[in-house]
Write a structure and sequence with these properties.
The complex is a heterodimer of chains A (326) and B (333). With 326 residues, chain A is an all-alpha fold. Chain A contains 13 helices and no strands. Chain B has helices spanning 2-28, 34-37, 45-55, 61-74, 102-137, 142-156, 159-172, 192-225, 229-236, 241-269, 273-278, 284-293, 298-326, 329-332; strands at residues 76-78, 85-87, 94-95, 100-101. Classes of the chains: A mainly alpha (326), B mainly alpha (333). The A-B interface holds A 152-153, 155-158, 160-162, 164-166, 168-170, 172-173, 176, 254, 258-259, 261-262, 265-267, 278, 281, 285, 288, 292, 295, 299, 302-303, 306-307, 310-311, 314, 325-326 and B 15, 18-19, 23, 26-27, 30-32, 148, 152, 155-161, 164-165, 168-169, 216, 219-220, 223-224, 267, 270-271, 273-274, 277, 285, 288-289, 292-293, 296, 301, 304-305, 308-309, 312-313, 316.
Chain lengths: 326, 333
């Protein structure tokens, strides 16, 4: 209110003022940059993703790779020589017991796999959820009730277990088509299943928003002007649905990263000799007493990645939706 | 109310039939041949065919499904002559790999899963709802920050990591858990202390995940409810803060949490796969994951999947009925 009176006074003084309007984007960005935790989490997230994607280059720079079994780094019990799991200048995160591979390289490649799975799965979830959510929320009708029933139906399945039970035979099926083999096929299957069991949450969110938005004045105005449904969806609904999608992306990425690690830990997903955090950790459990660093270092990295992305997601949500009081 | 009840129950039965049918259908189209898996690598085709017949896999999928339903109601016999195996109703099938009726396997595993679920449930409701209310009451004070940190840790730690870390670096390191009793089921009726020792770390791990979500949810619900007009009215009437919280705020704020709790608990009854796997608890989750990873024991997989889905569907029904009972508007909807 106080601001309004100030503007009025200025206007009465006959001065020409250019009132700098801030777009919603700028407002959100301003709110985001004021949140220190969010900014640091954002920097950390970008760091992790970059490091993951440049794994081949970075490992070469350090002079290691994920395939070689190094000589002279393991003792006669196949345990790393030296303290903290054999951390040294040549091997910054230590050595994998048993084989003598470099843990730094394994972690980097593991992070890369996690990010690839999480990003593709998120993209899939978003596209399907957006498409189906808008279609059912905007057009309603019979399709809406059928899709709604189907998603209820899907929710009653034990998703985690179905993925575990179906992944192994599905990998065989994907390999039989000749599109992907080995770990590539496993990644494809995992992503497909994560999307299949994951899209309903986002679809419900978008559907309810699209439903309430179609009753709002700006959509009705567009309808009254004779705009086509396609135009209304693209020009009126989509711009208003993006914030929801961005928040969902930022919170589902860490979720999918954790899911990928969990499934590979349980033995579904990427298999040796390729590396992923779940695989390293399931191997590290048997060495916990003699080589705790081998367990704790990958654990720490994975937790740091998920934590950074979660904090970033929270900050983005706060920035885009100030009313959401966590 | 009776009409609503009849409608919801019949809808649930339809969903259950559809769920069990699709589980059957999904596993039937997979390129896994359970008959071939019954007798290792060096196997005569004749043996595979005989096993296929004994497993009841030589008939079409709808017929298999019909037999499965019939078995649930009336029990089922496998094989002929001297090698006949009887599984009394409700028969979920016969596991040729474990030489046991699946119903027996489930009956052995269920108390473990139930113990795990109940203990974790009590823990997460107490911690989650309690901390959520505290955080809402002390908004922006240190209690609230502690709760926020707890939520962050709880939601960021994948449960297999918290499981490993707690089992190894707390349980085994400080001898809180007996390594020899890992993987054994200790009945609380026979040895309550042993039962508690076997379960309490698993309860913590499982509860951590849920407690974080519940803290967040309770906090925002309580904060939202306390801005309602009727709370202001209650305050204007001169009621004490305690009475307002107990009689007015919590009653409205906790209703959706009851729904969530019912569904989450039911979801756990189908087996907490990760926690059971890490703590080697021989419950339904471990039964099903072993059936997948070791020998692809199809009858067990089908039974545990259908059972888990049944728990969720039935819990949905119960929650709906409870809502209709509490809120008459729901019945006509």
């Amino acid at each position: 209110m106080a601001d309004a009176t100030v503007v009025e006074n200025d206007v009465t003084n006959d001065q020409v003022f250019e009132v700098a309007q801030r777009t919603p984007k700028q407002i959100a960005w301003g709110r985001f940059t004021r949140n220190k935790v969010g900014v640091y989490a954002g920097i950390a997230s970008i760091f992790f993703v970059t490091v993951g994607f440049f794994a081949p280059i970075l490992t070469r720079l350090v002079g290691v790779n994920a395939k070689d079994t190094y000589d002279g780094v393991l003792d006669q019990f196949a345990m790393p020589i030296g303290k903290w799991g054999g951390i040294s200048l040549a091997h910054p995160l230590g050595i994998e017991p048993g084989t003598g591979r470099d843990l730094f390289a394994l972690s980097l490649y593991g992070a890369r796999t996690s990010f690839i799975v999480a990003i593709i799965a998120t993209a899939g979830t978003i596209s399907i959820g957006m498409l189906v959510g808008i279609a059912t929320g905007y057009f309603k009708g019979r399709v809406d009730s059928i899709v709604g029933r189907f998603s209820d139906f899907l929710l009653s399945f034990p998703g985690t277990f179905m993925i575990i039970a179906l992944a192994i035979p599905m990998v065989g099926r994907v390999e039989a088509t000749g599109l992907a083999h080995g770990n590539a096929a496993r990644v494809v299957v995992l992503v497909l299943f994560l999307v299949f069991f994951g899209w309903t949450g986002f679809y419900r969110l978008i559907r309810s928003q699209a439903m309430s938005m179609r009753e709002r004045d700006f959509v009705m105005a567009a309808q009254a002007m004779g705009a086509s449904s396609w135009r209304i969806i693209v020009k009126e609904l989509l711009p208003n649905l993006w914030p929801t999608a961005i928040v969902f992306v930022s919170l589902s990425l860490p979720g999918y990263i954790a899911a990928e690690a969990t499934f590979s830990f349980l033995g579904v997903g990427v298999q040796a000799p390729d590396a992923t955090f779940g695989l390293i950790l399931s191997d590290a459990v048997s060495y916990w007493k003699n080589d705790p660093a081998y367990l704790l270092i990958p654990c720490g990295i994975l937790i740091a990645i998920v934590l950074a992305l979660n904090l970033l997601g929270d900050a983005i949500r706060d920035a885009l939706d100030p009313k959401a009081n966590r | 109310m009776l009409k609503y009840l009849a409608r919801r129950v019949s809808a649930t039965v339809v969903v259950l039939v559809l769920v069990s049918m699709s589980v059957f259908g999904i596993f039937a189209v997979l390129p896994m041949d359970p008959a071939a898996l019954t007798c290792g690598k060096a196997c005569y085709p004749a043996v595979v065919e005989a096993n296929r017949h004994r497993l009841g896999l030589d008939v079409s999928v709808p017929v298999q499904y019909g037999r499965f339903v019939k078995g649930l109601v009336a029990g089922r016999t496998y094989g002929e002559g001297a090698a006949t195996i009887e599984c009394p109703a409700p028969a979920f099938g016969y596991s040729f790999n474990r030489h046991e009726c699946v119903t027996t396997l489930i009956a052995d595993a269920f108390p473990v899963t139930l113990s795990l679920a109940i203990g974790a449930f009590i823990l997460w409701i107490t911690v989650g709802v309690g901390l959520g209310i505290l955080a809402a009451r002390k908004k922006n004070q240190w209690q609230d920050r502690v709760a926020t940190a707890f939520v962050l840790v709880g939601t960021s730690l994948p449960s297999f990591i918290s499981g490993i870390l707690i089992l190894l670096f707390v349980g085994l390191k400080f001898n809180l858990i007996d390594p020899l009793s890992l993987g054994r089921w200790i009945s609380p009726l026979e040895d309550p202390v042993g039962w508690f020792r076997n379960f309490f770390l698993a309860w913590i791990v499982l509860a951590l995940l849920y407690a974080a979500t519940y803290t967040r949810f309770t906090r925002s619900n309580v904060i939202e409810t306390s801005t309602e007009d009727y709370i202001r009215t209650a305050r204007a009437k001169g009621l004490s803060e305690k009475v307002i919280l107990q009689k007015h705020t919590l009653r409205a704020a906790l209703a959706p949490i009851t729904t969530m709790a019912g569904l989450d608990f039911a979801g756990l009854l189908g087996g907490a796969i990760i926690t059971e796997q890490i703590f080697s608890l021989p419950g339904l989750g471990r039964l099903s994951i072993k059936a997948v990873l070791i020998d692809y024991d199809l009858p067990t997989i089908l039974a545990t999947t259908i059972l888990a889905a049944t728990f969720v569907v039935v819990a949905n029904l119960l929650v709906d009925i409870a809502y209709a009972y509490l809120d008459p508007r729901v019945r006509v909807a």
